[in-house]
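FORM 12-B: Structure-to-Sequence Request
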């Protein structure tokens, strides 16, 4: 039998946990479907230096564990199962997990995040958090006066490369084609930057290094020739995939597949809100996700009150 709740929160990153904290403090008795791998993208981040309140760097997984404990201290139930399907066609809304656990809710906050697209090679996975990153804003500071590679050819790659020149001594963009895909203004900005170089028609065949990235083995897609390039860091910038498949097309998405919301986190379905990276393709930061989680919970509380349900 499905549990009956005022609000269900789907996700377990900074947005979901913050929404849960605010919902609990507003006596909405939230239920969180957090998934098996709790914590979101910060679980593959090493030192976090840009989250307020921590004078010293804090490890990403530790930061998420602290958030989780704060949520649990407020009496929130977290179910470690992934949401598999939802029914937003009628109220109360219905959410069901991969394990068959079900809940009905008067309001829902979707905060399932987005996953960086990776190459899918073993050495890349092994060195994530040890020189391999998908967030220049998060990790660029750790590469002062070092040489890094950025993989990609679109606006994301160009923006990351330009940003990294604030720290790195040299940034090399590795692109599988012989021309960039990004906007002309970003192409011009990158090409004019004296710290940025380009390697064309190439893909990463292997990330080199034992405990930390020491280089990358590149493969020319036209000749098949392989070349080892020395670097201290490798930044993947080939895009992100928001976690929205379980929604079954019931919420409006933008042109990039992120949940479309207004500036108050409201989605195309009244009573359903979205927060964090699943609706934010621009910033993708823990602090902005947390801020959106706060907004979503406050908006849900007000919406429930307007419906006479809270």
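FORM 12-B RESPONSE
SEQUENCE OUT:
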């Amino acid at each position: 039998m499905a549990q009956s709740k005022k609000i269900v929160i789907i996700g377990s990153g900074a947005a979901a946990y913050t929404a849960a904290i605010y919902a609990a403090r507003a006596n909405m008795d939230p239920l969180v479907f957090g998934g098996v791998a709790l914590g979101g993208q910060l679980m593959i981040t090493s030192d976090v230096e840009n989250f307020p309140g921590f004078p010293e760097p804090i490890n990403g997984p530790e930061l998420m564990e602290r958030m989780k404990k704060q949520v649990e201290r407020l009496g929130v139930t977290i179910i470690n199962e992934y949401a598999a399907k939802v029914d937003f066609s009628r109220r109360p809304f219905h959410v069901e997990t991969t394990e068959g656990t079900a809940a009905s809710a008067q309001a829902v906050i979707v905060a399932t995040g987005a996953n960086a697209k990776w190459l899918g090679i073993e050495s890349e996975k092994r060195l994530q958090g040890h020189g391999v990153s998908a967030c220049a804003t998060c990790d660029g500071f750790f590469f002062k006066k070092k040489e890094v590679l950025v993989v990609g050819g679109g606006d994301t790659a160009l923006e990351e490369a330009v940003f990294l020149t604030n720290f790195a001594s040299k940034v090399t963009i590795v692109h599988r084609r012989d021309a960039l895909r990004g906007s002309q203004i970003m192409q011009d900005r990158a090409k004019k930057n004296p710290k940025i170089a380009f390697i064309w028609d190439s893909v990463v065949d292997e990330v080199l290094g034992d405990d930390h990235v020491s280089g990358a083995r590149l493969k020319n897609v036209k000749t098949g020739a392989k070349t080892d390039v020395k670097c201290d860091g490798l930044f993947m910038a080939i895009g992100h995939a928001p976690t929205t498949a379980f929604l079954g097309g019931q919420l409006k998405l933008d042109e990039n597949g992120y949940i479309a919301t207004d500036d108050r986190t409201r989605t195309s379905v009244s009573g359903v809100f979205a927060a964090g990276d699943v609706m934010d393709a621009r910033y993708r930061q823990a602090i902005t996700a947390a801020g959106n989680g706060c907004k979503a919970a406050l908006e849900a509380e007000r919406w429930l009150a307007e419906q006479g349900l809270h």
